[in-house]
């Protein structure tokens, strides 16, 4: 039991060093990735081309992560919802472009590997960009007039 307690304490200290909201953001991201993977696998297994299946799964995962990040990760910005959604769409569009481009490139380079590996790699490539953009642009507090 002391080993587990020691591990928990180390994880708690490590989490305290992380930027505010990053643990929640990563948790939401893992859930979004799970949704992405499940939707992709289901749509692709139904016979849909992997490029189109990935576009569908990215869209669904994007909606899920916006809703969760809005409710759990970032404080209210003071902006109208449509403005915040537009900002989210810009950042997410760029991040998902990185993810989708990486997915297509990896599928082309390694055609005999499961496409889910390329999906995972693309999501990892896009995570840092996405967190930075969401934290400092989408969910940054609105400036007072």
Topology:
Elements: H1 2-17, H2 22-45, H3 50-73, H4 81-109, H5 115-138
Helix pairs in contact: 2-3, 2-5, 3-4, 4-5
* Total helical segments: 5
Q: Radius of gyration from the CA trace? A: 17 Å
What's the story with the biggest beta sheet? none
The computed structural class is mainly alpha
Q: Please tell me the overall pLDDT.
A: 83
Summarize the structure in words.
The protein has 145 residues and is mainly α. The chain has one domain. Helix content is 81%, strand content 0%. It has 5 helices and no strands. Helix 2 packs antiparallel against helix 5 (115-138) and helix 4 packs antiparallel against helix 5 (115-138). The protein is globular, with a radius of gyration of 17 Å. 24% of the residues are buried.
Question: What's this entry about, in short?
Answer:
The protein has 145 residues and is an all-alpha fold. The protein has helices at 2-17, 22-45, 50-73, 81-109, 115-138. The model has no long low-confidence stretch (mean pLDDT 83).
